[in-house]
Amino acid sequence: MKDEALINDIATLARSIGFTPDDIKPLAESGSSRKYFRLSSGSRTLMGTYNANVEENEAFFYLTQHFGAHHLPVPNILAINESRECYLQTDYGDDTLFHHVQLALASGRYDEATIALFKKALRQLVRFQVLGHQGLDYNKVYPTPCFDLSGVLDDLDYFKYYFVKPHAEIVFNEARLKAEFHALAEEVCQANNDFFMYRDFQSRNIMICEGEPYFIDYQGGRKGPLPYDVVSLLYQVKAQMPQLLRDLLVDYYKQCLSEYVDPDSVQFDSYYPYFVYLRLMQVLGAYGFRGLIQKKAHFIESIPYALRELTAWSEAHPLNEYPELQNILLQLPKLFPLYLSPLNSHLSPLTVTVNSFSFRKGYPNDFSGNGGGFVFDCRALPNPGREPEFKTKTGRDWEVVEYLTAKPQVHEFLNHVKCIVSQSIDNYLERHFNHLMISFGCTGGQHRSVFFAQTVADWIRATYPTVNVKLNHIEQHIHE
């Protein structure tokens, strides 16, 4: 249906509920085939939607009514036309959580206000998963009632057929991969799935209105496991969230979850890494289909971000029990030169090694042969180690992170570090140097140095996606 006819139909529907629009404007299309319009009448606005897929619409109508009955923050359905293809709903404006993410990335860091919005979103996610599940008739959802073995295999095959196979650079044995995908799917399906799974819980689908999150695009929801939606939000690839912040937010999510369900009882931590793999592979499959097959530029531009995330995760959490899949993951860096333009104009040979260490034990060794690099002394900053509650914690624990990020002098120190380090990285990239070492020292190598090494490593990965970053927390015996 053409936009002119749609606008007439939506205007008629609006007048049927006493809303006479002064203006109806089409909104930018998303990845779906749905069309959205904003209706204005004086200072009042409504959202109009057209979707030819009536079965999907019926799922959205049902879920909206169900969630509303559980006092979850979703739109109100105000009117539906006779064909069930057009409907009107609450307009929450244009501000999304992803907009706040973009502002945070532009400023160089995730500020406390943006982190607070993520926490609000995660708290509401728990309510969707637990309360939204209660009494929900999964026979009325679309396109499938449950995220089962078939659904997991569909996501894995999406990755294989629409991303791996179109790239001749990646060599693999399809028969072995098929067997491993089936084994991986069976492993994933052991996770407790007695919850509502939003399916597309990401920051573009979270509206921010008067400082509070409201949720849209849940029509693909189904019965499923808890970790999938958490991963969908925290590993949204263009959000470029630092790993340290992800870990902090996962801890916060589990705190919220524990008000309803013991995270250990559903083995949340055991299955979480598999869902990171599953979601990132599904995303690359989607980018391959929408970008490489349908030729939509926005999705092609997103590919390098997803490649970087999946490569980094596979290096930190190798799937040694699935050797053929691991073989594919090890080959992904071959593809960086094909997709570098959104991130950098050339492939970088540069490796940046970031260390945390204890001054009592001496400076880190430089095995590159270049004689060392930057050494930053964190001992002039507030020391969490003097607080009894932090004695057994490290700079990777959320309690210590919150303590340090609340100190203005910490942000001042970090900004100076970024200015100095970025000057060298830019110069090294231009001159095709291959190594830079950055070390952060404190008294014991446990709190401040660990925090800064982790934060700066995450910042480099986000700012220079083609740079290879190696992170060593020497006193903690952690190497990433």
Describe this structure in words.
With 480 residues, the chain is α+β, with helices and mostly antiparallel strands. It has 3 domains: 3-90, Phosphorylase Kinase, domain 1 (2-Layer Sandwich), CATH 3.30.200; 97-338, Alpha-Beta Complex (Aminoglycoside 3'-phosphotransferase, Chain: A, domain 2); 351-479, no CATH class. Helices cover 45% and strands 14% of the residues. It has helices spanning 3-15, 54-69, 97-107, 112-130, 149-164, 174-188, 227-234, 243-257, 268-293, 297-316, 323-331, 398-405, 408-430, 448-463, and strands at residues 23-26, 35-41, 44-50, 77-80, 86-90, 195-197, 206-209, 212-215, 222-224, 351-358, 374-377, 435-442, 468-473, 478-479. The strands form 4 sheets. Strands 1-2-3-5-4 form a 5-stranded antiparallel β-sheet, sandwiched between helices. The longest helix has 26 residues, at 268-293.
Q: What is this structure's SSE topology?
A:
Layout: H1 3-15, E1 23-26, E2 35-41, E3 44-50, H2 54-69, E4 77-80, E5 86-90, H3 97-107, H4 112-130, H5 149-164, H6 174-188, E6 195-197, E7 206-209, E8 212-215, E9 222-224, H7 227-234, H8 243-257, H9 268-293, H10 297-316, H11 323-331, E10 351-358, E11 374-377, H12 398-405, H13 408-430, E12 435-442, H14 448-463, E13 468-473, E14 478-479
Parallel strand pairs: 10-12, 10-13, 11-12
Antiparallel strand pairs: 1-2, 2-3, 3-5, 4-5, 6-9, 7-8, 13-14
